[in-house]
């Protein structure tokens, strides 16, 4: 009976079946012993693997322990290299590409599978192997903007626009959870609120990204809240509204009413202005949610009409909301006091808008890495 051309029977005391990717292969790769239910062995051509991967080239032909055993030893045992930490499915896909088995390479990959494959590609410095499929794979997952894995995929494939847009989206929408961790995207079946801890994303991200994201979020929050924190400090510690000659206490009453309405408006949205010495640090929600809250604030003076600081709330329907550098348009009341308040807030909001526009997301060295990756994957064309 003929043996299956794609499998080699267990041999020389082996305990796992061999998947034959090259019938004339000289190297057995034993994959997944520590991360899969059972390991799987692939018969491959060492030269094909070395051509696809700079790491495998050094590993197999650089005089390391994994290199081909001496001739006398090779007669007694097959050349086997253990890859215990690698997942079998993404490793097999890389091996199929290396051996020209393109019938087993999908035109589209779901985002998690693509991310896992690129983790293996990155580990073995084999980005060039993705070149024929990189653009199509990326286009197939670009709509998944609520999944932080898209950031890693863009970083590995060298797509600067998607990487920068994801950085902005994460900085704008990430939350602080009950454990004090930064979260964005969903974990498990919960789709009510973001719950994926960004610290669990170990691969395909720039060094120090989590710290950078915390810093970006704080800068955005600080600049967004600065007009209101400044108004609160002024009302709490000083006099804003001048009193009339007829009523020497009218200014203090106006300021007290405005202070109370400011505190109550924030409290209605779950933000305690009075209790937080550092309002930005105390706020655990998303910058985008805060920017949606601000148009609903109602600030009152002693005059009959209340002051609404903003016009209509900005739309968040775009996959990548571009709220950065924008400020809602103030509406003016009729009284002198209201007009003075509106003018002061308008100037403060404009300063905040300018500061938000200066927040850096993709850094220069991110761009250098992405351009190098794009030249390997073909996205630079």
What does this structure look like?
The chain has 381 residues and is of the alpha/beta class. Among the domains are: 1-104, Potassium Channel Kv1.1, Chain A; 212-357, no CATH class. It has 14 helices and seven strands. It has helices at residues 46-52, 54-61, 71-74, 88-98, 111-123, 134-141, 149-157, 160-173, 209-237, 250-268, 279-282, 287-293, 336-357, 364-377, and strands at residues 7-8, 18-20, 27-31, 40-44, 80-83, 175-176, 182-183. The protein has a five-stranded mixed beta sheet with strand order 1-2-4-3-5. It has a two-stranded antiparallel sheet with strand order 6-7. Helix 7 runs antiparallel to helix 8, helix 8 packs across helix 9 and helix 9 packs antiparallel against helix 13. The radius of gyration is 30 Å and the shape is elongated. 33% of the residues are buried. Mean pLDDT is 83; it is low at 1-5, 9-14 and 304-334.
Rounded radius of gyration (Å): 30 Å
Q: Strand-residue fraction?
A: 5-15%
The biggest sheet, with number of strands, parallel, antiparallel or mixed sense and barrel status, is: 5 strands, mixed
Structural class of the secondary elements?
Answer: alpha/beta
Number of helices: 14
Uncertain regions spanning at least 5 consecutive residues: 1-5, 9-14, 304-334
* Apparent shape: elongated
Q: Could you state the order of secondary-structure elements as H and E?
A: EEEEHHHEHHHHHEEHHHHHH
Q: What is the number of beta strands?
A: 7
Which strand order do you get reading across the main beta sheet? 1-2-4-3-5
Mean pLDDT: 83
Percent helix: 40-55%
Whole-Å distance between the termini? 51 Å
Protein name: Nuclear pore protein
């Amino acid at each position: 009976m003929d043996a299956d051309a794609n499998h080699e029977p267990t041999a020389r005391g082996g305990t796992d079946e061999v998947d034959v990717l090259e019938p004339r292969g000289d190297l057995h790769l034993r994959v997944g012993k520590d991360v899969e239910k059972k390991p799987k062995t692939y018969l491959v051509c060492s030269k094909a693997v070395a051509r696809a991967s700079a790491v495998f080239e050094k590993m197999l032909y650089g005089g390391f322990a994994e290199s081909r055993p001496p001739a006398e030893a090779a007669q007694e045992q097959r050349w086997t290299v253990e890859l215990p930490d690698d997942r079998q499915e993404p490793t097999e896909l890389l091996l199929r590409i290396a051996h020209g088995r393109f019938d087993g390479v999908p035109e589209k990959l779901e985002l998690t599978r693509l991310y896992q494959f690129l983790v293996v590609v990155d580990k073995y410095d084999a980005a060039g192997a993705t070149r024929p499929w990189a653009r199509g794979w990326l286009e197939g997952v670009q709509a998944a903007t609520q999944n932080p894995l898209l950031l890693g995929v863009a970083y590995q494939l060298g797509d600067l626009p998607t990487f920068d847009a994801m950085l902005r989206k994460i900085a704008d929408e990430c939350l602080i959870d009950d454990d004090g961790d930064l979260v964005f995207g969903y974990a498990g079946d919960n789709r009510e609120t973001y719950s994926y801890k960004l610290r669990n994303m170990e691969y395909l991200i720039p060094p120090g990204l989590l710290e950078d994201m915390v810093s970006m979020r704080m800068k955005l929050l600080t600049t967004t809240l600065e007009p209101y924190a400044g108004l609160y400090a002024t009302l709490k510690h000083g006099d804003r509204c001048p009193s009339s000659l007829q009523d020497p206490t009218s200014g203090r009453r106006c300021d007290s009413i405005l202070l109370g309405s400011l505190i109550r408006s924030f409290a209605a949205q779950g933000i305690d202005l009075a209790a937080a010495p550092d309002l930005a640090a105390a706020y655990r929600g998303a910058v985008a949610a805060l920017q949606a809250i601000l148009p609903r604030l109602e600030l009152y003076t002693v005059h009959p009409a209340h002051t609404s600081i903003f016009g209509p709330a900005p739309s968040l329907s775009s996959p990548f909301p571009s709220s950065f550098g924008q400020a809602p348009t103030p509406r003016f009341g009729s009284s002198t006091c209201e007009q003075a308040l509106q003018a002061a807030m308008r100037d403060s909001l404009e300063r905040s808008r300018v500061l938000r526009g200066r927040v850096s997301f993709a850094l220069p060295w991110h761009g250098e890495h992405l351009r190098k990756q794009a030249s390997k994957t073909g996205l630079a064309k």
